[in-house]
Write a structure and sequence with these properties.
The structure holds two protein chains of two kinds.
Chain A (H helix, E strand, L loop, with lengths): L1 E4 L23 E6 L5 H14 L3 E7 L11 H10 L2 E4 L4
Parallel strand pairs in A: 2-3, 2-4
Chain B lengths: L4 E4 L4 H11 L12 H9 L10 E3 L4 E3 L1 H11 L6 H11 L6 H6 L5 E8 H5 L14 H17 L3 E2 L2 E2 L12 E3 L10 H4 L6 E8 L3 E4 L6 H12 L6 H4 L4 E5 L1 H9 L4 H11 L1 E3 H7 L8 H4 L6 E3 L7 E5 L6 E6 L7 E4 L3
Parallel strand pairs in B: 4-7, 5-6, 10-13
Antiparallel strand pairs in B: 2-3, 4-8, 8-15, 9-14, 10-14, 11-12
Helix pairs in contact in B: 2-3, 3-4, 3-7, 4-7, 9-12
Classes of the chains: A alpha/beta, B alpha/beta.
């Protein structure tokens, strides 16, 4: 037998953890973090509209400011959404 | 967490390829088994703690260590004396300016181009002359491949899973070139940006080289107009980023023609900055939401000409290649900056 190293090495722990799911939409404040890819904001707003029909509350719709899609979101935008929403829709590819 | 060691029945390349294929590893080409002896030989060519965590590489957040680099360098077929260049390039990739998370994850076909400068080019057998972008040279080919293996295996940037590149690119197999300093009339690229070291490595995350074939003119302006035209298509990311970099890889004959007319590196940068432009009206008609133009671009009138990058310093010049009337433009991904480091292990 021949022993070789795995090429992957060790994976670190991610910085954040997933929160648990919410049991109900009633009164849930749904925000949007728009990365400004074409139609991303429109798509997510319509998802918010559907969730509002089912009992959620529309929260703030934010963009990533100057950071755009290819850079991390500024901390102040994250903080604002964390303070003013219960759930955020984000992420859209091309 | 992954297993540190795996077992093969033999060192047959077919067996290694089959094992890697089942795990989604490798690039589809034969590799060298990273046995302990081979990895230790790589590490003896470096200094520093082999298990020091240099940084975490997204999207997998794999821990980049000299040992992990050495394993992937063995796989790629690199020889141990290349390790300082490989380690330096991997360290450069970890600079936040590079934005490797975006580079690895994007739908764009961007890949890190490694440019080797200085004494390392001749001392380590890199090809800076005929066919410098490939194929045929072990140093060029294996350094670029080692970098790709680090991104694939440690970073988890696998096609369709971590790496969303729509079509991929040949440069995602290997992408390494060497500066042809003896043929450069403008000195070395690192010295032009204030880095004084016997050897250096630049990492520029970019598209593949876009060729310019220009064999008609001695006048620098007419000659550089060909290059400017290749810098200003709407389809490259610099068109929507407004501050992206270009590396212009001059073939030696083109460099000699332009410098022979008395033009300096700065003259070339300034001229290309002025000429690589598109009508603002046209750009606004074609770029809607999602463009990342700086405020000064948005303030231009429709009748103005928009530069495809915000400053002549973003147009970075070096010489590579052999005889022939060809040069290349290498546009960046847009949301990234190149990094140049002195070679250290």
């Amino acid at each position: 037998m021949v022993q070789i190293y795995s090429p992957e090495g060790t994976a670190g722990e991610p910085d954040n953890r997933l929160t648990s799911s919410v049991p109900t939409l009633d009164g849930l404040r749904i925000g949007v973090l728009d990365n400004e890819k074409p139609n991303a904001g429109l798509l997510m707003k319509r998802i918010v509209d559907r969730l509002v029909e089912r009992g959620a509350v529309a929260g703030p719709q934010q963009t990533k400011l100057e950071a755009k899609a290819y850079l991390p979101c500024p901390g102040e935008v994250i903080e604002y959404l964390a303070d003013n929403t219960d759930l955020v829709l984000t992420g859209s590819a091309d | 967490m992954s297993d540190t060691f795996l077992e093969l029945a033999t060192e047959r390349p077919e067996e290694l390829m089959e094992l890697f294929a089942t795990r989604g590893w490798g690039d589809g080409l034969p590799m060298i088994p990273p046995t302990e002896d081979r990895v230790e030989a790589m590490l003896r060519a470096t200094s520093g703690d082999p298990d020091e965590i240099l940084y975490q590489l997204p999207p997998r957040l794999g821990e980049v260590t000299r040992r992990a680099i050495a394993v992937n360098a063995v796989l790629a077929g690199a020889s141990p004396e290349l390790m300082p260049v490989i380690v330096t390039a991997v360290r450069a990739i970890g600079d936040p300016l590079v934005n490797i998370r975006g580079i690895n994850a994007t739908t764009h076909p961007t890949a890190p181009l490694v440019i080797v400068h200085g004494e390392a080019v001749t001392d380590l057998g890199f090809n800076a002359g005929h066919g410098s972008f490939g194929p045929g040279n072990r140093a060029n080919a294996t350094v670029g491949r080692a970098i790709r293996f680090v991104l694939l295996h440690v970073g988890g940037a696998r096609p369709g899973d971590g790496d969303a590149s729509t079509q991929g690119a040949p440069s995602k197999y290997t992408y390494c070139v060497a500066e042809n300093l003896p043929a450069s009339p403008w000195g070395s690229y690192p010295e032009s940006i204030g880095i004084d070291a016997p050897s250096a490595v630049t990492v520029h995350c970019a598209e593949g080289p876009h060729n310019i074939h220009e064999m008609w003119h001695e006048e620098p302006e007419l000659h550089l107009d060909f290059i400017a035209s290749v810098m200003a298509p709407m389809g490259n990311n610099n068109a929507l980023a407004s501050n992206g970099e270009y590396f212009v890889a001059f073939g030696p004959e083109h460099a000699a023609t332009i410098s022979g007319a008395g033009w300096s590196r700065r003259d070339v940068q300034n001229y290309l900055f002025e000429r690589a432009r598109r009508p603002v009206r046209e750009m606004r008609a074609h770029f809607g939401g999602g463009r990342a133009w700086a405020g000064w671009v948005e303030a231009l009138d429709d009748d103005d000409l928009m530069p495809l990058t915000g400053h002549p310093d973003n147009i970075r010049i070096f010489v590579t290649g052999g005889p022939g009337k060809h040069s290349s433009v290498i546009p960046s991904w847009g949301g990234t900056r190149s990094v140049t480091l002195p070679v250290e292990a």
